[in-house]
From TrEMBL:
Pfam families: Bac_luciferase. PANTHER family: 5,10-METHYLENETETRAHYDROMETHANOPTERIN REDUCTASE, PTHR43244. This is LLM class F420-dependent oxidoreductase. Its EC number is 1.-.-.-. Keywords: Oxidoreductase. It is an enzyme of class 1 (oxidoreductase). The lineage of its organism: Bacteria, Bacillati, Actinomycetota, Actinomycetes, Streptosporangiales.
Amino acid sequence: MAEIDFSSRVGVWWTSDRWPINDVISRAREIERLGYASLFYGEAGGKEAFTQAAALLGGTERLVVGTGIANIHARSSPAAEAGARTLGALHPGRFVLGLGVSHAPLVEFSYAGSYSKPLSTMREYLQTMDAVRPEVEPGGRRPARLLAALGPKMIELSATAAEGAHPYLVTPRHTAGARELLGPDKWLVSEQAVALTTDRQTGLERAHQHLRVYSQLPNYRNSWLRQGFAESDLVVGGSDTLAEGMVAMGGTEAVAAHVTRHLDAGADHVLVQVLGDDPSADPLPALRELAPALGLG
């Protein structure tokens, strides 16, 4: 597998778009001190993914930084490849380029693009990246590419045209199926949302808030149906059944046990996404509590 220098098997996924970048860097340093091996983040109209990666890599010492995902409609494939190679040369083994096709409403509204044939679009994007000349970053090794893969065809493409997959909003059962499709020699980095609370109602409220947007996007709705949920679970914000299936709720030991189920199912690395009372809540209090239960520190 392409080199990724994870210092542990657990990292963090954090939507930090509403935070000033210097505050994000400060929290990234504490995330590193707590023993989490990585920090991944999305790209959906907020901070630009490569600029944020450069800031986080430069502001930490060993933390792996990953785009989860960089939207392929936000930049040309040669620009993505050139940027990734430079970040990889500056910080060997510490930058992961997660790529995704995003969603039709975002692509058509925010990027004025056309969303069709996502699988072939991704395949062609990767082929064009591969064709970029090595002189762009002489002597630099290309960092690992992971694809935002939910369905079997995109997971298979992750195995043949990338270094692995980064599934989001999936169960440990999905992780097991993804590992089978990827084979043993590709990276599988799964995201897991968590609500660190022993009050079930509070946990459900956080989960429903988190799922509100995703439950209206066809890619996730289709993924959940493939994972065994019913059409009746796909109400706006998700049913309680979907909420409890997608979000690990409870005390530190219960949440850690759910993360371990992904690892046991074949994930190489699991990204913990802390859900608070609002989307911009500081994740650090919960991450501090979770770290000992996850064997970090």
